[in-house]
Every structure is written in C-alpha cells, then in structure tokens.
Amino acid sequence: MNTRTTETAEAPRNPNAHGPLPTLSPGETAAVVGDVLLPVLAGGVVVRRPRMMSLVERTGWDRRGIEKARALRNRYGPDPLPFSVRGHRYALVLEPEDAHRVLSETPETFTPATPEKRGALAQFQPHGLLISDSGERAARRSLAEDVLDTPQPLHRMAEPLTATVREEARRLLAGSERTGRLTWDDFNAAWWRTVRRIVLGDAARDDETLTAQLQRLRAAANWSVLSPRRKELRTAFLRRVRSYVETAAAPGSQGETGGLASLVARTPAAEGVDPAGQIPHWLFAYDAAGMATMRALALLATHPEQATAAREEARAHDLAGPRELPYLRGCALESVRLWPTTPLILRESNQETTWRGGTVPAHTTFALYTPYLHRGEPAKSYGDSFAPHLWTEETAHEARANPALLPFSSGAAGCPGENLVLLTTSTFLEELLSHHAYTLASHPELRPTAPVPATLDHFALRFRVHRDG
Fold first, then answer.
1. Which H or E run includes 104?
2. What is the mean pLDDT of residues 237-265?
3. Which of 123, 154, 323, 333 sits CB 3.0–4.6 Å from 391 for a disulfide?
C-alpha cells in the first residue's frame, strides 16, 4: 500500500495516472479522523447533542478541522485523499470542482445511499429517498419534487403555509414581549409547532408525542452502527405519521389545513414509493432549518448594516399574502454556509473512478467536508464573514455557480425542499424582525469586524428582545 510522506509532498502525487491514488498514512488518517470527522460525530450527525455542541464550540474543534483540510489541500494538491478506517475506504474531497463532479454524477456513479447513511436514517425513515436503491429512487424523487414544488420559490400552498408561520411567530413574540427574552427552547417549541402544521396539518400542531418519538429515533440513529433498531418505536412513529395522511385523504378534509400531508394524500404514486414514508425526512430536514433560522437571527443581532437591510425588507411587506424575501433568504443561506447543517456530504462510488493523479476503487465513500468548502481555500474573501448579499439577485448566480458553496447540496440528489425551507425560514425571520429588535445575550460574542466563529452552539443562544416600531 502506498502512503503519503513529507518527502513526496512536493512531487507529483502519482506519476502513473492509471494506478491507484496513494492513501494517507496511519498518522495522517488519525489526524483527519481526529480533527475533521470526530467533531462532526461528537456534535451529532442525525440529531445534535447539546453538551458536545458546547464542547466543540468552546474548544474551536471545527476550526481545527477547517485548517487541517486546508493544510492537506496545500500539501497534496487537489485530488481526493484516500484513507481507510476499520477496513472501509474513504476519500476526502477538497477541490470544489471535484465536489461538483461527485454531486453531478449522483446517483449514476456516486450513490447517496452509503452504508453509514442507510444505517442511520433507516432508524426512522426506512423507505426514505436518500437511502433508496436505484430502482426506487426515481419514483420517490418525483413524488417529493411534486409535493414540495421543488423549482418554485413560492410553493403552491404558500398562502396558508406562510400564514401558519406568521401566526406561530407572533405567538412566540407575544411571550418574548412579556419576558423580554428569547431562548433556543422558546424558539424551538414554536418552530416545531410550525413544522408540524406545515408538514402534517393543523391537527398536528400540539402533537409533541410525535416529535419526541422522532427525536428518540434520531438519537438512536447517531449510534446506528452500535445501536439496534428501535423497531417498536419506529412502528409507532410511522403509524402516527400515516394517520395524518389518512385523515387528509378522507372525504371532506380541508386541504389548506392539512399541510403537505394533504398533497401527499392526493398525489398519484407508483407502487413501492410509500408516499407517507417520505414525510419523516421532511420533519428531520426542518429541524436543521430551525437551527439555521436562530443562527441567522444571532448574526443579524450583531451585524448592524445587515440588520438594517433585513428590517427594511421585513417591514415592506403586505401581510395579506406570501412574497419572496431575497435578502432574508440570503441571511438563511449564509447561516447554512457558515455553519453547515450537513457538515459531511457522503457519496459511495459504485465503480472505479479516475482522477488527475490516479484511480480510486469502487465502493469508496467520498466525503465532502462542507465547513472547509464553504470557508477554506479556495473560498473567496467572504469565507469567515456574514455576507447575505452573496445570495441576492445581483450575485446569486455567481454563488450558485461556485462549486464550493453547497448549502443544500446539489445535483440530482440535492435537497428537493430547498425553496420551501427558505420560504419558511425567511418568513419566520420577516415576522421576528418586523416590529422587534434583538441583542445577543449569549456567548460567543459575534462582531462585524471579527471572523465569524466556526461553531455556533444554537442550544445556548439567548436574546434580549424589545419592541421596535
């Protein structure tokens, strides 16, 4: 087996482009595992762990991972870096163009249904799109795109959905006005009420049992390699999800109050698609969107120039209906760029792949480390700054064309709910900012003149709130 050494760092990595790329040495593999992979695993891959998120933030562990990835890219060049952990082959992708290739050749060459992902997500979505094999993927993707209105900035149910968002945000703010504060726990409770109504309908608003079941299954998914399937709990959770779809499908049901479940009930699907079985992933994804929303609020509370632009957009709206909010969408996208909710995008090759300096065997898991891609070399000067303008009309095409920026992944397996999620997050921010101002009352301190930290523990976020206009 070839190994990388200091002596060969300046030489061509593999003069024989038809041979395998050399693998990282055991010492370098340990450094990648310790600085890049472990903080992701420690924080929680499927559901975040509060204590470990606090530890990662306090120790700057994510920053070390970004710097390690940058050092490896500078030392070894652009090719993926193969390494092995417990007999399984991995390759760390450090070049934006290579990240683009992996995602654009999904699922033909690189499947998203990696062993790690199947082991984790099967805990609560055994028929989910991301872990479906090639024979089921196309039909499940088609259903998801239909229900989620994938290409549309304003979903066809935007009016009732945004009305739900505004209603729940106002109820949250009413409590914040009484106490003068907003915490993650306050926000998270309101966010999940919103999500349950959007996804499952108004009847699910107060179904905290369903959310608790999902959280327990996701916690088990964090340890999927070691933890047995929680089959009874999964059955109870899925039965609960399906009951909302069945109710929405009943004669005389009200589509506008049935959320996405009403569309699932009315959308034709091929045999084996399991339409209701796609809903758990939408609930899972919306949890990450809540983290992004709260973090975006923290950025706006500490960056006066961007806050002024956001408030102006928020206050220039017509409450009678939904609308696109490009600047607030940009704030949400920046939150995900700076703190990716999917720090590792995994794809498994189903055949040998050829790169600049050589080949990588089939059945290698390619890992796209998004904190590095979004901030590190060769990212541009915005790497550690809060730059919502990247995503507004004038520059959005450039940002979208940049293969290093993957807030919602990309390609055929990119997030089909991106526009719906951004509609939800931007509308929630709109309501929060329309008549209230916020002062960040938690650590770490965020300043417009300082680099944005590599980790922001959303569990610890606290704001002072006061009426403003």
1. helix 96-104
2. 88
3. 333
